[in-house]
Amino acid sequence: MAADRPHPAALRLRQAIDALVYAVAFVAVLVAIAAIVSVPLGWGLVGVKFALFFVGFFVFGISAFQLRPTPPWKDDDPADEREETRFQAAVQRLPPLGRYGLAPDDRLPASAKLFVASVLVLVTSFVMEAGFGIAA
């Protein structure tokens, strides 16, 4: 194990924090976009909840599909997979990732972070309906 790599338990904890911060940022951006669209159209928070529900299931399906293992007969170069997107770069500047962030090679794949984000989107939609009574 290289000297600059953290202990495996510490690495997993930092990966979990990275995925959670990514998911929270994803939900915040999605709620903001849904509110910007639904409030002027007169749908209010019900429109936000429906947008979260449908986008959550869509991203859930896409990310679950991307999480499939690579078939053995494919010999694509996985080096391009860990490129940092603009959204990921913005998320990396959020606390606590600015201090405890990981190198792109140490992070979970984007599909795993999107899967966590989709579950958080669906939980947010459920809490809006069951917890706050926002329903059509």
From TrEMBL:
<protein>
    <submittedName>
        <fullName>Uncharacterized protein</fullName>
    </submittedName>
</protein>
<keyword id="KW-1133">Transmembrane helix</keyword>
<feature type="transmembrane region" description="Helical">
    <location>
        <begin position="114"/>
        <end position="135"/>
    </location>
</feature>
<dbReference type="Pfam" id="PF24432">
    <property type="entry name" value="DUF7555"/>
</dbReference>
<keyword id="KW-0472">Membrane</keyword>
<keyword id="KW-0812">Transmembrane</keyword>
<dbReference type="InterPro" id="IPR055977">
    <property type="entry name" value="DUF7555"/>
</dbReference>
<feature type="transmembrane region" description="Helical">
    <location>
        <begin position="20"/>
        <end position="43"/>
    </location>
</feature>
<feature type="transmembrane region" description="Helical">
    <location>
        <begin position="50"/>
        <end position="67"/>
    </location>
</feature>
